[in-house]
Write a structure and sequence with these properties.
By secondary structure, the chain is α+β, with helices and mostly antiparallel strands. 27% of the residues lie in helices and 18% in strands.
Length: 136
């Protein structure tokens, strides 16, 4: 078995987020499942924190689940890096969008996640959501 280089592993890892119906297009969370500026929560019911990510969860009376990802310029200087990280997180959050309880979830990236593989990032989000008593 040939030894894989870091670039081969990263490329294989990136391919795991590609949409099977569209060539070279990453999964993206549907616009209806993303939080708009007007509905961005002012006050959070729960705050969760981990080494690389933190999140706020706000219950709403009606509607569906909504997600947002916030990445500061302090975390990633280049917009390309911030947008790539945001797309990676949205692709992982797509699996959590089937929950029926109406809530708004905002994920804040604390430090750079570009060195994390998609599997490690998935584990970070899973660990973050297991801190809450809610069914996410």
């Amino acid at each position: 078995m040939a030894k894989m280089s870091f670039l081969d592993v990263a490329e294989r890892d990136e391919r795991s987020l590609l949409c099977p119906n569209h060539v070279n297009k990453p999964y993206m969370l549907a616009k209806q499942k993303r939080i708009t500026k007007q509905s961005f929560p002012r006050k959070a019911d729960f705050r969760l924190s981990d080494n690389t990510l933190s999140a706020t969860i706000t219950h709403i009376n009606q509607g569906k689940i909504g997600f947002s990802v916030v990445i500061s310029k302090k975390v990633a200087k280049l917009a390309v890096t911030r947008n790539k990280a945001r797309r990676r997180i949205y692709a992982i959050l797509e699996s959590y969008s089937t929950t029926t309880s109406p809530m708004l979830i905002v994920i804040y990236v604390k430090k750079s996640i570009e060195n994390l593989t998609n599997q490690e990032l998935k584990e970070e989000i899973k660990r973050l959501f297991h801190q809450t008593p809610l069914d996410i």
